[in-house]
Write a structure and sequence with these properties.
The chain is an alpha/beta fold. It has 21 helices and 20 strands. A hairpin with a 4-residue loop joins strand 18 (697-701) and strand 19.
Length: 722
């Protein structure tokens, strides 16, 4: 039987956690149920709850997300169903249909994916899947919340008669309207509506000439509203029919409600099921917000929390964008009690609260923010003495209150208890309080209880050092700046740095020295030794951290080099492919050129075609048959390689052009060109002969064709032979 006192829950700020979890609920009942969460009293139920939350959390990371579970509370409807001769309105019936649809969708989903969510599926099997309520309500109520005409033969008949009668009313009113309008008895507005009835707007002077019932008048008294006599008769008949229709609707609703009463237990289960799902969902969303997990449960009574975060501190710092320092701490059979010492503001109390709060959360069916290699166990009782211990209501001093707490601890403490005490032994004379605290600690130790205490007392540190199943621990401090590093180190007591902190805060050295003389030399030496060991530990921690960072940097650089090497290799392969492709094209070009020269000489078409066909066959024999999709892919790849090559060539060209500009260009003296001189263009290779020169332009004959070129663009190859 697990029991955690309400005071411990307050000390550990457990109710603040519940407030934060409840913000993730989407229903009022779910929120109320979350705020009422307490640690589970039975281990079996707790293990199931943790499995539900863990399975729901896993649904956030896969495609099979659990359907929406939102619903409107049906508590009022359930109360009405318990009372005989009552009936539910159509809005209430629609709520029941909506809830039935929601539950059925979740049940069908869990049935379909029971391999993914085995525990949630087992939990859902207690609920019956039925469409009877949905079918019965849908047969009577339409989607707008109105009773359907076909709900009963009498209702159908009444509504047909009512519609006919309404037609007669409109017809008779229109007839009277035209008659009195022609007689000029009506005002300009002609008609109005009073008490949901159409009435004639009669001028006051003609009110006696219009037959009917006076329904009212205008504020000025110039208009009198009259319902025509012919219409009045039909209206009375309509009122009677509408009354009968209302009675028939109530009768139908009563019959339907009586039928739904048979499903009262099922509807109770529906609401409880969806409320439970809302609580599970809220716990899962809260776990997701701080990367919480379900750690492994230890078969023995031992716990190891690796990289454990205080949930409230973690979420607050996350919102501010600040870093939270995790702690690693364990309680086992060979180290049941840990005594944390060291200066104030170093994180001792936060570490103690982190362990207590995470233990309370896991025992309340919540996942916790720890490393996946962490292990947890269950305690039957968690006792705490944390925070402000003055009891104003009971007029007790701090020390009296703490003694009262210790008395309670002595009564309840056993080998299945976890105790958490902050600033153990304070509130009385240091010598006497320390001695009494030591005695209490020995009793807890003898009873094989598990616990964490924080203290400044040297005798408690010595006791932890002497007893085999008790350990010292301290929070690391920077030995130079005396700033906290917020890291717990187990196995060594911590110095309070009393004199060092005093010196840092400007207390004169003479006063500090005087204080040292007032206390025993042994205590100073003990504290100094602890301080020295703590400084050494800090240096080692810093060196280790630096080595890890360097190793990480080297690994990153090696990965980058491998990445660059892979890219270079890929590019070389691409350029090799491009080179091979271009070489092949050059070879084909040469072959075609040889064939064309041969044809130029012998003019044999058949031989030309045979040579070309042979060349094509040879090339096709090298090709592999590929699909259109593969062709497109290869073409795209070739284009990419070409574009990359062109970009590189363009860069090289630009560099060469820039280099040419830098060089001093020595211009050759221009030759005077004449007819029959052999010339070529500056940027060309073809050589032609000048046929004529006129107005700075020359006609150059290339044999196959002639062209008109500016003389400045030509350079002399060979002068005309004399």
């Amino acid at each position: 039987m697990i029991s955690i006192h309400e005071k411990t829950l307050k000390d550990l700020e457990f109710f603040t956690i519940l407030d934060q979890v409840s913000e993730h609920c989407i229903t009022t009942l779910g929120k109320n149920a979350t705020l009422a969460i307490l640690p589970f009293s039975e281990e079996e139920n707790l293990i199931l709850e943790l499995a539900y939350v863990n399975e729901y959390l896993s649904s956030f990371d896969n495609d099979n997300r659990i359907p929406n579970h939102g619903f409107d509370t049906i508590s009022k409807e359930l109360k009405l169903l318990k009372i005989e001769n009552t009936y539910l309105e159509t809005s209430s019936l629609q709520k029941l249909v909506s809830m039935s649809l929601t539950v059925n969708s979740i049940l069908k989903f869990l049935e379909k994916f029971k391999e993914y969510y085995p525990e949630l599926y087992s939990f859902s099997r207690q609920i019956e899947v039925t469409t009877t309520i949905i079918e019965q309500v849908d047969a009577v109520v339409d989607r707008f919340g109105d009773i359907k005409d076909g709900a009963s033969p009498l209702l159908s008949e009444l509504r047909i008669t009512i519609n006919k009668l309404k037609g007669k009313i409109n017809s008779s009113f229109s007839s009277a309207l035209n008659t009195y309008h022609n007689l000029d008895y009506l005002d300009d507005i002609r008609e109005s509506v009073v008490e949901n009835k159409r009435v004639l707007a009669v001028k006051a002077m003609y009110r006696r000439k219009v037959k009917g019932a006076i329904m009212g008048g205008s504020k000025t008294g110039s208009i009198v509203y009259i319902e025509p006599e012919t219409t009045l008769q039909y209206s009375r008949e309509l009122n009677n029919l509408e009354y009968e229709e209302k009675e028939e609707v109530i009768k139908i609703l009563k019959e339907l409600t009586d039928f739904i009463r048979l499903f009262l237990p099922l509807l109770h289960n529906y609401q409880e099921f969806l409320t439970k799902i809302d609580v599970i969902s809220a716990k899962a969303k809260y776990a997701q917000s701080m990367d919480a997990i379900l750690p492994e449960f230890s078969k023995e009574r031992s716990m190891v929390l690796r990289d454990a975060y205080h949930p409230l501190l973690y979420l607050t710092n996350k919102e501010k964008g600040e870093k939270t320092f995790p702690q690693t701490i364990g309680l086992k059979k060979d180290s049941r009690i840990i005594v944390i010492s060291g200066p104030n503001a170093g994180g001792k109390s936060i570490t103690l609260k982190t362990v207590g709060l995470l233990q309370t959360m896991i025992q309340s069916g919540m996942l916790i923010p720890v490393h996946e290699r962490s292990k947890v166990c269950l305690f039957d009782r968690i006792l705490s003495d944390i925070g402000d211990n003055q009891s104003i209501e009971n007029h007790l001093s701090t020390y009296s209150y703490r003694l009262k707490q210790m008395n309670y601890f002595l009564r309840k403490c056993n080998n299945k208890t976890l105790f958490l005490i902050d600033e153990f032994g304070t509130g009385s004379d240091p010598e006497l309080g320390g001695a009494l605290a030591e005695t209490f600690l020995e009793v807890f130790y003898e009873r094989e209880a598990f616990g964490i205490i924080t203290t400044h007392y040297s005798n408690l540190k010595l006791l932890a050092n002497e007893l085999p199943y008790m350990e010292n621990a301290n929070m690391l401090f920077n030995e130079r700046s005396l700033e906290p590093l917020y890291k717990l180190v187990v196995g060594q007591a911590g110095s309070s740095f009393t004199f060092e902190v005093a010196q840092k805060n400007g207390i004169p050295y003479s006063l500090i020295n005087k204080s040292k003389k007032k206390i025993e030399r042994g205590k100073i030496r003990f504290d100094a030794t602890i301080a020295k060991l703590q400084k050494e530990r800090s240096k080692l921690e810093r060196t280790e951290r630096s080595l890890k960072e360097n190793e990480k940097k080297k690994l990153t650089e090696a990965e980058k080099l491998e990445e660059v090497n892979a890219k270079v290799q890929k590019k070389l392969e691409s350029f090799q492919e491009l080179y091979d492709s271009n070489q092949r094209l050059i070879y084909l070009g040469q072959k075609v050129n040889e064939i064309s020269e041969k044809f130029f000489e012998n003019k044999k078409k058949r031989e030309l075609m045979a040579e070309l066909f042979k060349l094509v066959q040879i090339e096709n024999s090298k090709r592999k048959k590929v699909s259109a999709k593969q062709k497109r892919a290869e073409k795209h790849k070739e284009n990419q390689i070409k574009q990359e090559a062109e970009k590189k060539v363009e860069v090289i060209r630009k560099k060469k052009k820039a280099a040419k500009k830098k060089k001093v260009v020595i211009e050759k003296p221009k030759s005077i060109l004449k007819i029959d001189d052999r010339v070529r263009m500056h940027d060309g290779r073809a050589i032609g002969t000048i046929d004529s020169i006129e107005k700075g332009k020359a006609i150059v004959n290339y044999g196959i064709f002639t062209t008109n070129v500016n003389i400045d663009l030509l350079e002399l190859v060979e002068a005309k032979k004399k």
